[in-house]
Amino acid sequence: MTGVAEPNAPERTAELKERLAAVRGRLAAACRAAGRDPAEVSLLAVTKTVPPADVADLIDLGLVEFAENRAQELVAKVGDVAATRPGASTRWHFVGGLQRNKVRTVLPWVTCIQSVDSARLARAIDKEVDRLRERGERSGPLPVLLQYSVDGDPARGGVPDDGLDALADLVAELPGLELTGVMAVAPLGGEPARSFAAIAAAAARVRERHPSARTLSAGMSGDLEIAVDHGSTVVRVGTALVGDRRITSE
Fold it and tell me: Is 25 exposed, middle or buried (0-12, 13-18, 19+ CB in 10 A)?
């Protein structure tokens, strides 16, 4: 059940403020080094496994974009945060692997799904958007990103390179979806610069076919500088921002 979350201790609030300042400093420095305007790159706070009180503090510190990767945690946390900060203009993204039977759970709560990696999932989302429109609960298409697989490993999720163009074309045709760009995770153990170069090339290819797909969501706590150097417009930061945290049981 959702409710007003207990506030953080002052020490935790101070820690989050310090962490956010450090991440913003890294992001600004990365943009300077790449010769880019810092306004071109957004910070998306990944708040999986952290309590609603942390999100509330980050809202107070000026963040509005948040991401979750599990359906049940997303729904519970959005409700708790809304009760705690009822006037906040938060925007929630879903960034994890999404099963088709969870689309109905997730859709009412998110402003973007960043992990569309198959035609079946795209069609399931489109169908649910249509259902919500018929009920008067949604007025426009849902922005989505294509999750691109750099190495083609099916265990990691993402559409492989040889399926990217076809999936982009399909999503662009579905009336319930708005293709806004590409999301990717650099493989662990790979050479980062090479991985991000491949991600940037894939995103450029999608943009060439669909010019409005300008978003590139790439880079996390450990590699955001390399991602910015390769054109990322959204960095998804969790650990550097909130630390290694887990929601405690009631």
Answer: exposed
Query: Hey, is 135 helix, strand or coil?
Result: coil
Examine the pLDDT at 178 and tell me if it is beyond 80.
Answer: yes
pLDDT in tens, 230-244: 999 999 999 999 998
Specify the 3-state DSSP secondary structure of 4: coil
Rounded alpha-carbon distances, angstroms, from residue 115 to 59, 119, 130, 143: 24, 12, 19, 11
In the structure, what pLDDT confidence band is assigned to residue 247 with cuts at 50, 70 and 90? low
Q: Is 250 inside any structural domain?
A: no
Give the number of domains in the chain.
1
81: its two tokens = 């945060």
In a domain, 47, yes or no: yes
Which DSSP category does 91 fall into? E
Does 2 have pLDDT greater than 70? no
Residue 5 has pLDDT above 80, yes or no: no
Domain contains 18: yes
For the CA atoms of the chain, what is the radius of gyration? 18
CB count within 10 Å of CB 216 equals: 28
Q: Domain range holding 91?
A: 10-242
The answer to whether residue 3 is domain-embedded is no
CATH of the domain at 30: 3.20.20.10
Cβ proximity of 124 and 100 under 8 Å: yes
Mean pLDDT computed over every residue of the chain = 94
174 in Cβ contact with 208 (< 8 Å): no
